[in-house]
Amino acid sequence: MAGLMVGFGHYTHAIVRGIPASLAKEALRSSQSEVDVVNARREHEAYVEVLGTRLGLEVVELPADESLPDCVFVEDAAVVCGDTALITRPGAESRRRETEAMKGALKDLNLNIVEMTDENATLDGGDVLFTGREFFVGLSKRTNQRGAEILADAFKDYAVSTVPVLEGLHLKSFCSMGGPGLIVIGSSEPAQKALKIMQQMSDHRYDKLTVPDDLAANCIYMNLPNKGHVLLHPTAEEFPESVKVFEKLKDHMLIPVSNMEKVKVDGALTCCSVLINKKGNI
Amino acid sequence: MTTEAGSETEVKEKAEESAAQPDRSEKAKEETQEVPNAEGEEKEKEKEKEGKEGKGIARYLPTWLKKQKSQSQTSPTKEGPPTEEAVSKVTQEEDGPAPEVNGHAEEEEEEEEEKEEKEAVKSEQVKEKEAESHSTASADTEPAKEEKVEESAEKAADETTVTTEGEGAEEQKKEQEGEEEGGGGGGGGEEEEEEEGHTSIFQSPLRLVRKTKMKLMACHVALLDGTDFTCEVEKRAKGQYLFFKVCEHLNLMEKDYFGLSYTDSHEQKCWLDPTKEIKRQIRSNNWQFVFNVKFYPPDPSLLTEDITRYLLCLQLREDVASGRLPCSFVTHALLGSYTLQAEVGDYEPDQPRPLDNVSQLTFAPNQSKEMEEKILELHKSHRGMTPAQADTQFLENAKKLSMYGVDLHHAKDSEGVDIMLGVCANGLLVYKDRLRINRFAWPKILKISYKRNNFYIKIRPGETEQFESTVGFKLQNHRSAKRLWKVCVENHSFFRLNAPEPPTKARFLTLGSKFRYSGRTQAQTRVASSLIDRPAPNFERTSSKRISRSLDGAPVINITEASSENGREPHLELQSDSKSPMRVHGDNIYVRHSNLMLEDHDKTQEDVLKHQASISQLKRSFMEAPPPSPPQPNQWEKRLTSSPATTIRIQQQQHVTTEVEIEETVVVQEVSIAPKPGLVTVTASSPADPPAEQETREQEVTVEEEEVVVAEEAKVSKQESVSSESESEEEAEYHPNVSVSICHTQIPEEKEEEEEQEEEAEDKTAAEQGMLPPDAPSLPAEVSQAVEATSQEAEEDLEAEKSKNAEEEKEAERGMEERTGDPMMTPEEAPNGHALPEESAKGMVASAEEEEEPTMNGEASLAEAEPRPQVICCSEPPVVKTEMVTISDTFAAQKTEIATKEVPIVHTETKTITYEAAQLDGNSDGEPGVLMTAQTITSESLCTTTTTHITKMLKGGLSETRIEKRIVITGDCDIDHDQALAQAIKEAKEQHPDMSVTRVVVHKETELAEEED
């Protein structure tokens, strides 16, 4: 049965997208770094395989678009909660067209589509943290107030609080959900500050899991039948200290997923998929 | 002399009247009964205030006012005044008070109300005249009675042991009452009767008329199921009466979550204050109300009865359908499906056109066919679910909605950006459009206040922050700010009090708070509902009549409109604690402990020195004497205590008290020397006590710390309320900060207008009260009458118009009384008390007026506080030195002059040092208030008696909580009052860091007899 806020982390579908060759040079990035497209694609394949094969999600893989170098980061193009999907208006102009394919895929999944048509609004899905009980929207370079308002309008059941993102690309560049009521947060000052704001803004109590590396705080949590708590987190190769922290989560099935190449273009684990729960929905 | 007689006469008259006119008394009783504790208290307070303040203030009053009052007052008492005169007097009185009342009114609304009342009064006057036959008759009878009374009074005086000064007055009142009860015997045993009786002399005619002709108003209450409940209530009925009637009709026991709302003249939805008269809140003659959920229980599953959940469901369905409670398509469908299941039952596949039924109901603002189909689809899945289960499921989903129970108010931030402020169980939410941009949990809020159209919250500093910060919002107007403040106060108290209180707090007297919220807290109501022992009531689930109507655009619409933007904007007037802005502004209070000096206006320095010396001697002698009888709760107190809300309030108040800071602006030393009549504080309170007191010769250093809890004026500070709330909770800290700081600072600015009004009101009241004193000396009898009259007038007028002011005054008076007087003292009786002193004075004078001016002195002593006591009303720190000689008669019964003579003459020197915050006084006096709640907590240790009075007053929507803590240190001869005072204050402050000490009264009672001898 349905109901509000039940089954946080329950997913049945995942939407991903291929990596265009243009990623290497044209993808937006905050640091000057060379990206090996081959390695990136290999990484991504492993990522998709975890979602589909290991975790049993039904994976919808959209083809890469060379004109959209950042198109692999599908998270920014849509926010899905329940059976409502908000098609965003990405803050980076070069990415606006990424939503087209996403919209089509979501429609195919019979989700209620809400589009962000306001030209004053920008929203990247990477700035949207859904905790299961409410939304936090980071106000960043990519996301503005108007975008957050539209998101709030799309998901009326939930409180939508705004959180200033002073450093980093997105809100989820330094945090993510690690379980029901558990926020994984980086240890940097901006990250901790953002966490405090979130805690203040919320009527609910959240536990926090602080990891030494901000980037390692971006994980994917799922609650899957027969598997229980599942956490996809960066590898020890990248963030050895942070992984030690993850390993303290005894109840979680921990799945390290390499993300060494995509991180060079500010891609984190959550960026590369849109997770959907179809069965549980009413 | 006269005064005394008058007072007694009044009483007797009352008693007689009551006896003679059973109807009246009955009516009066009814009224009193109807009125929650508060009324009785208020009345008492008013009386006291009038009595005390009146005299003092009288000086300042214009002569014409005095004359009027005096006349009116006198008329009744005077012998055989023609009925016409009496009538005219009555009318005059009425007229006189009314204007004053206006001045008092802070709020427009109130003023209006008052005016209305006045008008009503006038109209009633005619009736009264008609009825006057009664009054006249009473008047005629009165004279004779008066005589009797006087005699009795004298006797009483003897018996009475006496009271000193202001305190004495209170006590005296009590005594009088006691006498009345005892002597009058036949008269009316019940306090209420007596009280009314006092008032009744003048009022009685009016009241009688009113009662007899009491208009019944037809009330239309829109219920949640869409039906209308119509009933008739007396025009003067309080909100509570109607609310209970509705709850009775609904068979609802868990009623604390609900309330009645009405739409005010500004199209704003307001909560009907249960403690105030309906007609004062509703401007129009259209008595239309809506029964609504006021506090949305965060977890409806914890409700005890299904009927309660059902009503909550009805409210939420309406909220959802109107869009006030936004939710997604899916949620709309889900909630709708549960509604269907609850009201229609299982889905019937055979039904020909199921969709038709669905589309007849409104589930969402924009209900689409698609949604209806979804609802139907989901409905099918609920097969087998009982209505109660469906309701439960409905609530389980609805409660998770982010806007569940959030009361939205339009506002602007400091930069003028439109925002919404949402008040909910957890705190205050700030929205910009639909986004939550900030949140202030109740524990984070130290103080809530409003000033003009600004709304402020003071935020507790974070872990890394050193200073608390204040966040301000602009509301549309003052009314909106006040409304928001009230809602905050109420919600805070209702929900926040849940938290278990830390043991520390528990020890203090914490009362529910200044908070105006008068009802139970959620915690309390849960306890109460857990005790519900009745079979689940059967109730009919009307199939969403209301919802269906909404389609038609009927009743639902109203709700939607009203609430949609502003959300629900209930005005919980009840809860407003802030009595007077002045008080609230405790910051400005200066402490002048060092200045405490005993000054005898009446006496020379030598006398003073003598007194002091004698005092020290007396102290020694007193050492031996038994400690004063422990303060006994007044009737008022008892009532208060009995009230359900008491506990909570107590807690809150205590916190408030905690805040007490020692800041005294004015040091008033009152040494009243009443020659013969020794004032036994106790006397009044308990018949038995007086003798004991007399015997004991008590040396009491009474340090009464009145914490003007800073009545947070609604304007200035919601904080207070908050504070009160916090008090109740763990965060006592809140309160302190709130009350003190806010009050002082804010008051000046915000309440300029209010203050002025208040001041005016104060003046008026003072004038009224004061008028008496001047006259009194010359015309004792008249004076007493005047007092009575004033009190009566005050009661009526005050109730109607000035009720607020009066209440405040009363509170102030109480405070005064308490401070000066004994713990026992009954505020109500204070007026009478004056009379008693006089009486005592008479007897005293005759027999033993050893000390200086007998009657005069006696009166002075009685009035003492008032005229000189400027403390109360006046900004000036008057130094009054009153030496009271209390002659205590061992046998109250023997009140004859003889007795007096026989009675050991104990000279009591009473030094009363009062520190007052000038601001506080003004507020208290000026503003009319409705007494919301009052509690008294008394704790005793070996030589220390601590009495805490917590009073909640509602003034014009502002609630003021006043915690008055009286610490009586009974000492040996050697007690250094300064030291004791300092110690007491220190301790009090330790307990309640934020408490402000408004007034410190050092009361020394010494037996002068020895010395003199």
From TrEMBL, chain A:
Keywords: Hydrolase. Substrate binds at residues 28, 70, 75-76, 95, 142, 265. This is Dimethylarginine dimethylaminohydrolase 1. PANTHER family: DIMETHYLARGININE DIMETHYLAMINOHYDROLASE (PTHR12737), N(G),N(G)-DIMETHYLARGININE DIMETHYLAMINOHYDROLASE 1 (PTHR12737:SF17). The active site is at residues 170, 271. One of its GO terms (cellular component) is mitochondrion. Belongs to the DDAH family. The keyword Hydrolase applies. InterPro entries: DDAH-like. One of its GO terms (molecular function) is amino acid binding. GO terms for biological process: arginine metabolic process; citrulline metabolic process; positive regulation of nitric oxide biosynthetic process. It comes from Sander lucioperca.
